[in-house]
């Protein structure tokens, strides 16, 4: 049996095509930031190991072991991570909050759709575009006092609409607490 030539060129394209999506999904489900860097680091370590090891019997398992090692090192840099005692929520708190944020954003969009257009437009330009005072009043062609009134009414109606949307999503919820 011949020893693999560590200087022999390796065509990375097939491995990248095969593993990029897998690795991206793996890291995206486990960290809130640095996904692309972790994928790149894993692929770099995979190619370095492939040069040393020669043919790999189970490439997907091999790359996922490397990914796991890269992930644990990432966690260790952020905290004193022990995979036997730490939960995913302990080290990737952003994951559950990111899922909750998407759910809340969907609920807010659904609640915003329930507002009268004038209130929607006012609150959208105020919070979404950052327009304030005279600029917002001039944009909408109304006095500044009307803007303040619309914002108060929009917030009140948005809270009520959000509570309805949330209750429709989860019938066990009786009030808006998010």
Give me some keywords for this one.
single chain; mainly alpha; 2 domains; 178 residues; 8 helices; Arc Repressor Mutant, subunit A
Walkthrough of the structure:
This protein has 178 residues and is mainly alpha-helical. It folds into 2 domains: 13-90; 95-169, Winged helix-like DNA-binding domain superfamily/Winged helix DNA-binding domain (Arc Repressor Mutant, subunit A). It contains 8 helices and no strands. It has helices spanning 13-28, 35-53, 59-78, 88-91, 93-112, 117-128, 133-140, 144-169. Helix 2 packs across helix 3. The longest helix has 26 residues, at 144-169. It is elongated, with a radius of gyration of 26 Å. The N and C termini lie far apart (64 Å). The mean pLDDT is 80.
Structural class: mainly alpha
Strand % is under 5%
Number of strands: 0
**Dominant shape:** elongated
Calculate the terminal CA-CA distance, rounded to whole Å: 64 Å
The major β-sheet equals: none
Relative helix content: over 70%
**Number of DSSP helical runs:** 8
Integer-rounded radius of gyration: 26 Å
Overall residue-averaged pLDDT value: 80
Order of helices and strands: HHHHHHHH
Q: Give the count of structural domains.
A: 2
Unreliable segments of 5+ consecutive residues: none
